[in-house]
Structure formats: C-alpha cells, structure tokens
Amino acid sequence: MLSRKGIIPEEYVLTRLAEDPAEPRYRARERRARFVSKKGNCNVAHKNIREQGRFLQDVFTTLVDLKWPHTLLIFTMSFLCSWLLFAMAWWLIAFAHGDLAPREGAAEPCVTSIHSFSSAFLFSIEVQVTIGFGGRMVTEECPLAILILIVQNIVGLMINAIMLGCIFMKTAQAHRRAETLIFSKHAVIALRHGRLCFMLRVGDLRKSMIISATIHMQVVRKTTSPEGEVVPLHQVDIPMENGVGGNSIFLVAPLIIYHVIDANSPLYDLAPSDLHHHQDLEIIVILEGVVETTGITTQARTSYLADEILWGQRFVPIVAEEDGRYSVDYSKFGNTIKVPTPLCTARQLDEDHSLLEALTLASARGPLRKRSVAMAKSKPKFSISPDSLS
C-alpha cells in the first residue's frame, strides 16, 4: 500500500515470492483418482497397445464391446456389402453369357429377367433374404450360377447368425441387470459385538432374485515394498461377514454386510483422523450372482474412498413388518445415525480394553441421566406461604 502511494519505492518493498495474489491462500487437496467408480466402471485407460490384431482374433467379443452406433453401422454395412458383392457376381455371369442384351434365337439365360446392374442387385437381395418375388430365378443353363447361389445362401446365413447374435448379446448384457443392484453411498465404521466393523448396505430393487449371490471386498492402496518397489495398485482381499455366514448372501431384502477389523485386517491401524486427511485408500466391493430370469452371470461393483467412510455411525433399520408381510423403505436406504464409538484404531482397542469398558459405561449412564433429568422436570414444585405457617 505504501508503494502504491509513492512513499516507498517499489524496489525496496519485500514481496512474497511463493504466493500469488490471484490464487487462494489455502488450496484443497486433490481427491484421489478412483480405481472403480461409484457406478462400477473401472477407471483404467489402456494406451500404447501394439498388438491390435489380437482383437480381430475374437471378432464376436469385439463387436459386442463396441458402442451402439458402431455396432449398427457394421450391422448395416455387412448386409449392404454382401448384397453388392453378389450383385456384381450375378451381373458378370449375365454379361459373360450375353443375357444383358438378348438376341433372337439366343440360348436360355442363366438368370431370368436380369438386364442391368439394378436388376442384378434386386436378385441378390431376393436370394440372400429368401424373398422370392417370382420374377427372377436361376435356370439349369449355367452351373456357375448354381454355385454362386449356394455360396450366397451360406454367406447370408453366417452374417445373420453373427450379427443377430451380437445384437442379442448387447441387449441382454449382464451389466444391465446390475443397474438395479444398489449400494449405500457411504460406508460406516462402528462397534458390533464389541469389535470395530466396517459396514455397508446392499440391496436389490427387482423382485427376481440373484441366485448364488456372493460378495467380495478388496482394499486398494499405494504401497512400497521393503526392496523399494512402488506398487501403485496393491490389492488385498479381506473377508466379509453377513447374517447367513460366509460370502454367500440371500438378497431378498437389503442386507448390511460387515467386515470385522481384527489383527488380520488391512484396516487394523486405520484411525478416524486418517479418514479426515484423505488417506490413500480405496475399498472395492464386488457383488456377483446369476440372474434368475436369464441365467446370465452379472456383477455389480462400487468403491469407497477414505472420505466416504463415516466413523461412529450406523445404518438405520428400513425393514418393518406390516399387514403380515415385510416392507422395505428405500427412502432410508443410506441414512445413518451416530452411535458411541471409540476414536482409536482397532489395534489400540485390542491392546487397551479399558477404552471399550469406559465407552460401555458412558453409554449406559447416558439413558439414566436423561431419565433422571426428565423425572426432575416432571416433579411438581410446592411453595410454602407465611400464612400457612401461622
């Protein structure tokens, strides 16, 4: 300000070299790139693939993996190209036999009523799609024409089988069924049976079941080996627990899947402060099963970053019994409530059991204090006047 008024020359004014006035002083830390998005898409870009020919060795899978505009373009061009190719063959046969300009007393044509390339193209369509209008037909005059007829029928059947199968597989892809398999937006860590547990909720919106449904969970983080090797995506499998035991689940109603954080868990040293500081951590959840109506195996995926894990909270109940049946309120699917939870790692909780005892004692005193305060407020207050004493 003094330099702007001209009191002190600018060359004597000290400026902050590491600070730009146009930029904010405090910058938010960039969020970690996801390995798996919330919708289940893998965030991986494949670059510099030299052996592109490997994709052509499996043409059917390549066609199914293409986007719909490209698939429809290939579907249309495959039929048009085959019709044009065989139309050229029929036109050449008619031209070589002299059927395009028939003369008096000429021999019987190879294909009747072919006088131009347009008529040869129409005959090619009639042969391949077996329309048969009746105006054009192959005669016994040319054995080569009979051979071309057989080859075109075989090629047409192959194109129909491949392209129609591709369209069917694209419309009945397994990930379409996964759109109705939902996960809670946040995961929670709270006490269950006296142990810290990582919990999430999963549900199915359709009435048709997922047969042999299994669920798996992995922790993905950047690690460095003792030899100095940097592993950017180190994957560690961790066991999941549910009400029926094991990884298999009976997904009729929404379930809370939990993982006990014990000494064998990669979350054993995870503290609440690590979640607030955006630790380099991502937990991937994979639900897999067979669709009851189609028999196709489907897979639903999601992931949770460190800032999407809520410490000291628990999911609210959403299943209730009404009129002799169980009803599910999906409006509360991701709702959570705060519960007493120790603000320490699972390792510290195992080493110092007094933390859990103190938390249990405090949670037991809480309702008693509330009840005593409510009773004190409800008691009537009596006042004694001087007249009553006299």
UniProtKB/TrEMBL annotation:
Gene3D superfamilies, per the entry: 1.10.287.70, G protein-activated inward rectifier potassium channel 1
Keyword Transit peptide: no
Span of domain Potassium channel inwardly rectifying transmembrane: 36-173
Superkingdom, natural source: Eukaryota
Primary localisation category: membrane
Compartments where found: Membrane
Gene Ontology molecular function terms on file: ankyrin binding; ATP binding; ATP-activated inward rectifier potassium channel activity; metal ion binding; transmembrane transporter binding; voltage-gated monoatomic ion channel activity involved in regulation of presynaptic membrane potential
Function: Inward rectifier potassium channel that forms the pore of ATP-sensitive potassium channels (KATP), regulating potassium permeability as a function of cytoplasmic ATP and ADP concentrations in many different cells. Inward rectifier potassium channels are characterized by a greater tendency to allow potassium to flow into the cell rather than out of it. Their voltage dependence is regulated by the concentration of extracellular potassium; as external potassium is raised, the voltage range of the channel opening shifts to more positive voltages.
Protein's name in the database: ATP-sensitive inward rectifier potassium channel 11
